[in-house]
Amino acid sequence: MNQKKVIVIGAGFGGLSAAIRLLHQGHHVTLIDKRDKPGGRGYQYEVDGFKFDGGPTVITAPYMFDELFALFGKSREEYFDLIELNPFYRIFNEHGEYFNYMRNMDDAAREVAKFSPSDVEGYKRFVESTVDIFEKFHPYTEKPFLSFKNMMEIMPDVIKTGTFRSMYGYAKKYVKDDFIRKVCSFHPLLVGGNPFDTPSILGLIIQFERQWGVHYARGGTGAIAEALFRLFKEEGGKTMMETEVDQILFRNKKAHGVRLSDGTKLDADIVVSNSDVAFTYKHMISREDRPKVVDLYYDNIQYSNSLVVIYFGTRRRYLDSKLHHHNIILGKRYRGLLRDIFNKKKMPDDLSLYLHMPTITDTSIAPEGCESFYVLSLVPHLDAKVDWEKTGEAYRNGVLEFLEENYLPDLRSNIIAQHHIDPLHFRYGLNSYKGAAFSVKPSLTQTGYMRPHNKSGFFDGLYFAGAGTHPGAGVPAVIASGKIVSNLVAEKYGISRPEGVNSAGELV
Ligand SMILES: Cc1cc2nc3c(=O)[nH]c(=O)nc-3n(C[C@H](O)[C@H](O)[C@H](O)COP(=O)(O)OP(=O)(O)OC[C@H]3O[C@@H](n4cnc5c(N)ncnc54)[C@H](O)[C@@H]3O)c2cc1C
Asked: Which end of the chain is less packed: N or C, by CB atoms within 10 Å?
């Protein structure tokens, strides 16, 4: 047996995935998080009888959750239910007309015909072409990218599939109508990328959704985080919530534990950080320990956008509106708005929104007769120097006013519960460098080998799972990063418990 003491910093989905898998390998795993509940960005807020999922709402690839339960001979269905959604999204143009983004190709093609009949064939070819992208690149999402050789291996496929093009540029090859191009290329926005410069390798998300569906977890995404947390504890994992790690400790370039913010030191043979990778290097590793090149790197790479999210519950239902469960509301200006946010780091005057209306699918998360929502607005990260303390309220009011005028009549007088987050929450609440909502931005030069690695190149025993590392942001990606970390640990230290045996020593 080669049991190690492992500390996982952060109970986000990446941290939970790594912790569960390392526990299954037979290690002593302690999961530490500064918040009182697990989930990280997927934290569920409870306000006046409403349950608001803090972040991820679009759930796909259920097999990735199933795998974690199956490791211990358990079935995911015993822990939470998934409900399949169709349409996946309702996407509104600036005139309030909508496109139902359907799973079935013929249904989706009928929606294309509503806006641009001449694009139907192109749309079908576009969607079919993403099968090739998926088949070529999906296997790499569960493998580490630790050497430049790995990168060279995929380059011929990047060239062959044309996926060096931006997502929007790729869609443009197939369809002419600008709104349909947006419909084909918005997916990078779900993981912190600008469709105009994120490589169309991310087209593989389109196939993730088509192959496995888009789901909602009954009780909200918070139910998934709670289920994974429960599994971890049931199988013998130790948890320390409301506990903040201040520093990772090293001896001879090897991690040997952590120091908590109250000064307590905890020993470990292996430390896995699910805290933002840039924050970890710049704030949780002392200047004496970290090489100068680390600061140079993290000061010069690009970070994703930030967000303002307003969670609100109304005393009435809005079932008579044209909204669905997942709504994407695009403004008139799109490329310019994204350029302001991603490139110029400037607050735009206009809005593009995502509106979540989960009570359409699940009334259990709101008091009877009430509707629960969250509206998410893209904003630049903290380099934009916006004084959120001063201007945040006016901004949020503007968003609610827009919804009231265009989608939800009398909204503001019907709100009975409310909460919000903004870039300051990402920076100080979640320890994300520059308050970026999705950590390191996905781009051609920040993908694969060129993205922060899952294993530190500077320190032994230090690993990273989470949005800023390979393969990237989004729930499936961070769950995969946890799997990659556990495989790297197994490669280095061996597995102390054979596959197929649970913590009680029983065959599963
Ligand atoms: C509003 C929003 C909507 C989103 N929607 C979707 C979606 O619909 N579908 C999708 O797939 N993805 C979505 N995403 C992206 C997805 O939520 C994230 O990429 C993913 O959840 C990040 O997980 P993570 O493992 O990196 O950890 P995080 O969620 O970032 O969690 C990290 C954890 O570490 C803890 N921590 C940090 N530092 C310390 C420390 N020093 N000591 C102790 N604890 C610490 C934090 O408290 C936190 O709990 C969304 C993101 C946001 C913000």
From this structure: N
User: Where along the chain do the CATH 3.50.50.60 domains lie?
Assistant: 5-83+218-301+437-493
Asked whether 31 and 240 are in contact (CB, 8 A), the reply is: yes
CATH ID of 302-429, from 2.30.30, 3.40.50, 3.30.519, 3.30.70: 3.30.519
What CATH number matches the domain at 5-83+218-301+437-493, 1.10.10.10, 3.50.50.60, 3.40.50.300, 3.30.420.10?
A: 3.50.50.60
34 lines ligand 1 (CB under 6 A): yes
Phi, psi of 489, deg, nearest 5: -65, -45
Q: How far is the CA of 432 from the centre of ligand 1 (A)?
A: 9
CB neighbour list of residue 59: distance below 8 Å, 6 or more residues apart: 82, 214, 215, 216, 217, 221, 224, 475
Strand-by-strand arrangement of the 28-32 sheet:
238-240, 28-32, 5-9, 270-273, 462-464
Give CA–CA dist 141/63, Å, rounded: 14
Q: Report the mean per-residue pLDDT for the chain.
A: 95
Instruction: Give per-residue pLDDT as tens, 169-184.
Output: 999 999 999 999 999 9
Reading the block at residue 101, the tokens are 């983004």
Q: From the CA of 338, how far away is ligand 1's center (Å)?
A: 22
Q: Name all contacts of 292-299 with Cβ < 8 Å and 24+ positions apart.
A: 294/458, 298/433
Select from 16, 30, 274 the residue to mutate for testing ligand 1; criterion: most ligand atoms less than 8 Å from CB: 274
Distances (CA, A) of 91 to 96, 208, 305: 9, 19, 21
**Distance from Cα 42 to the centre of ligand 1, integer Å:** 6
Q: Across 207-267, where does the E strand assignment appear?
A: 214-217, 238-240, 245-251, 254-260, 265-267
CB 90 within 8 A of CB 327: yes
Token pair 């409900």 is found at 83
Phi and psi at 297, nearest 5°, equal: -65, -55
At 346-375, the pLDDT tens digits run 999 999 999 999 999 999 999 999 999 999
Query: Is there an atom of ligand 1 within 6 Å of 275 CB?
Result: yes
Decide which of 503 and 183 is more confident: 183
% pLDDT > 90, the chain: 90
Domain with CATH 3.30.519 in the chain: 302-429
List the residue whose alpha carbon is closest to atom 27 of ligand 1.
12
10 Å CB burial of residue 331 (0-12, 13-18, 19+) is middle
